[in-house]
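The authors assume throughout that readers already know how a fold can be written as discrete tokens. What matters is that the chain and its backbone geometry are given together, residue for residue. A single example would do more here than another paragraph of explanation. For illustration, here is how one protein appears when written out as sequence plus structure tokens.
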Amino acid sequence: MSSRLIGVGMGPGDPELVTVKGVGALRAADVVVVPVMAASDGTDVGERGRAEATVLHYVPEEKVVRVVFALNERTDRARREAAWDAAGERVARLLQRHAAVAFATIGDPNVYSTFTYLAQTVQELVPGTVVETVPGITAMQDLAARSGAVLTEGTEPLTLVPVTAGSAVLKEALAGPGTVVAYKFGRQAREVAEALRETGRIEDAVWGSALGLPEESIRPAADLDGGSLPYLSTLIAPARRDGTRGGKL
């Protein structure tokens, strides 16, 4: 019988936003893998990440397996690939001993998640592995709820942009008619603020980080001063609206 690898979305970090199905998947799995950042020598930095902290609200620590990923590696592709390979091999060994291995990922496992790369690697190493995912609440949904920003109305499009793709991609999206959500923009906060001003989208925009955690910050985008923000900051620039109820239907 084939082993199962289940990617479980843990939401933005607030333990109360993990779905009932997600909790069930964590508890039913034989082990729960959590990703941790790699030090410069490729070893575990020892810090507890957001996914692990959320998991520990629902399963005992002895059931959790920390696996190193180059989560913070953006420039050295060879080092990043080597870390993915090593992580895949570690999880493959777990699947050879266990019928069900869960992988906990912040947000949703099908939205900019490390789980995608892990699943590809594992399926090559352990043919026949069944890959499943349990959806999680995304940061844009949580920020919309906490800030009161409406993501979409009527026929409005919604564009999700990782700012790591470059400011030109963000500007192109902001020039369109719909709501734009930007992920991972903390290190490019100055460029994001400039793009919002250039496209006339800064007044209604809002950004947030550490949603649902003690260090949560939610502010108008107009307050962006170019200073450094947490890497996982999220921005919502709502579509241009005239205030008419159902005006976009």
User: Anything to note?
Assistant: The chain has a mean pLDDT of 89.
